[in-house]
Design goal:
Elements lengths: L3 H10 L3 E3 L36 H13 L3 E5 L2 H13 L5 E5 L4 H9 L3 E5 L3 E2 L4 E2 L4 H7 L4 E7 L10 H10 L4 E4 L20 H7 L20 E4 L1 H4 L7 E5 L6 H11 L6 H35 L7 E2 L10 E5 L7 H12 L1 E3 L1 E2 L3 E5 L6 H16 L23 H6 L2 E4 L13 E4 L4 E3 L7 H12 L3 E3 L7 E4 L3
Parallel strand pairs: 1-13, 3-4, 3-7, 7-8, 8-9
Antiparallel strand pairs: 2-10, 5-6, 9-10, 11-12, 12-15, 14-15, 16-20, 17-18, 17-19
Helix pairs in contact: 2-10, 3-4, 3-9, 10-12
The protein binds pyridoxal-5'-phosphate (PLP).
Pyridoxal-5'-phosphate binds next to α3.
């Protein structure tokens, strides 16, 4: 049996093209770093220490900081996951209250669990038909922010590339003297390139007027750092040429206690941070400083070609700039066909050797970057146009699995997840408290969170998802729903 390394070499030598993360696209030209073992060391003399940096690591962090313009930037070797955990732990007191979107990444929920937080949720907002999470406006925040909320947590861009107006949301937070944490794991490339933050004010309303499905992308959106967020977390590995697990956390202003943040970064990250990963971040930053413009130009060129050259497709639709803010995210809708997202994903993989990032109910998502190769982009365009020729338009045949409500809550996540639990049959679960997350994939938004109550509506919804064969995680089909044990 081949070992893991051999499996990876087999993939590298196969014809499968990566339309997914990491941003370097396994393109060796993206880095001078070939022999990882030669530079894999631990904290020896002269090589500084990530957890108490004063030398070469501090200098590397300062280079990254200069690129993004925050007050302080720290390297992360345990992904944005560790950044989200540390940011929330530092910004909100233990047992404190935070306002967040329901569709937040699981690291958000894990932070809420570890710190026993009281989470107030922003309502579900989904884009009709596509069933993907929408952005939040300043009015949403104004409406849901309570006086005892200690921080606001927003994901922008979303996984599918939709941005909230971080400038306006941070103004609301700052008027109340509380920090805004932006999970921009997918937005490390924002604000870079000639049309980036330095000379463009990203104004969503203005851009929306100019935008139509056919309009080309002229820049990447503005970075959350320059829009005034107090903490911004970037996975450089997702959209920039850096190795998997590498990320950055940026801090600005005086609402976040730096020493406290550093304490949590030490807690949540390995005590043996990889120099290979840290140097990969540094090389990536250097690459963006030196060649960032051509990288962003490539990305925009690839994205606009995909948009333009698939515009004659009758059934498949590449969702354009009027909906998707991030040119890296190519969301293809199968809404007008009898095909599901999963089926298109399989055809692209099996018949065209294109590995996409994700399949949704009636969409597929590809991630492209400036390090893609012309051949891969051509293959993607050809595949979409060819598949489209064989499809016919079908009306109203898509079932919508929209999650539209948040169940009432009786316990905090932490108490319920730690509580003794038992399986309860669907017919007996009404009014019982969930002891486990139940998630519908995709998009992975929780249907119920530990501590919330199974209402009839929730039980019926979960049942209908299962009946339709959807991927519902957190349920033992035979045994039922995991609930807090009743005394
Ligand atoms: C929105 C969001 N936040 C955070 C993360 C965690 O990032 P990482 O994989 O760098 O730990 C992800 C990962 O997919 C994500 O999608």
């Amino acid at each position: 049996m081949p070992d893991l390394y051999q499996e990876l070499i087999n993939l590298a030598e196969s014809n499968m093209y990566p339309l997914h993360m990491p941003g370097h696209k396994r393109n060796e030209l993206s880095t001078p770093m070939k022999g990882a073992f030669r530079c894999d060391i631990t904290e020896i003399d002269g090589y500084d220490n990530l957890h108490d940096e004063t030398g070469i690591i501090l200098e590397a962090e300062e280079r990254a900081n200069k690129l993004y313009g925050a007050d302080k930037t720290y390297f992360l070797v345990n992904g944005s996951t560790s950044g989200v955990l540390a940011a929330i732990s530092a910004a909100v007191s233990k047992n404190g209250k935070i306002l967040a979107a329901r569709g937040s990444h699981k690291s958000f929920y894990h932070a809420a669990y570890l710190r026993n937080l009281n989470v107030k949720y922003l309502p579900y907002k989904q884009i009709e038909g596509l069933n993907i999470p929408d952005s939040f406006s300043e009015d949403d925040i104004e409406q849901y922010i309570d006086t005892d909320v200690e921080a606001v947590f927003i994901t922008s861009p979303t996984y599918e590339g939709i941005c909230s107006d971080i400038r306006k949301i941070s103004e609301i937070c700052h008027r109340r003297g509380i920090p805004l944490i932006v999970d921009a794991a997918h937005g490390a490339h924002f604000g870079l390139g000639t049309n980036g933050t330095q000379d463009t004010m990203f104004n969503k309303e203005k851009e929306a007027n100019e935008a139509s499905a056919e309009a080309g992308y002229i820049s990447v959106p503005e970075n959350a750092v320059s829009q005034g967020a107090d903490i911004v977390i970037h996975s450089v590995h997702k959209t920039l040429p850096s190795m998997t697990q590498t990320a950055l956390i940026h801090v600005s202003g005086d609402l976040i206690d730096r020493a406290r943040l550093k304490r949590f970064l030490r807690i949540y990250q390995s005590s043996s941070p990889s120099y290979v990963l840290m140097s990969s971040i540094d090389l990536c930053i250097k690459e963006m400083e030196e060649n960032g413009n051509s990288y962003i130009e490539n990305l925009l060129k690839f994205r606009n070609r995909i948009q333009r050259e698939t515009s004659d497709c009758k059934v498949l639709k590449v969702i354009g700039k009027n909906v998707i803010d991030d040119p890296s995210k190519v969301l293809v809708s199968v809404q007008d066909s009898t095909m599901t997202g999963e089926q298109l994903y399989d055809i692209l993989r099996e018949e065209y050797g294109l590995q996409l990032e994700m399949a949704g109910e009636n969409t597929v998502l590809a991630i492209i970057t400036g390090w893609d190769k012309e051949e891969g982009i051509n293959r993607f365009i050809n595949a979409l146009t060819e598949i489209d020729k064989g499809l016919s338009v079908a009306q109203d045949n898509q079932v919508s699995h929209k999650i539209s409500f948040i169940p009432p809550r009786k316990m905090n996540i932490c108490d319920a997840w730690d509580a003794e639990s038992e399986f309860v049959s669907f017919s007996d679960a009404e009014n019982r408290i969930a002891a486990e997350f139940v998630n519908l994939y995709p998009p992975g938004i929780p249907v119920i969170v530990p501590g919330e109550v199974y209402t009839k509506e929730i039980i019926d919804t979960v049942r209908s998802y299962l009946d339709q064969g959807l991927n519902v995680q957190g349920i033992e089909k035979k045994e039922g729903l995991l609930c807090v044990r009743q005394k």
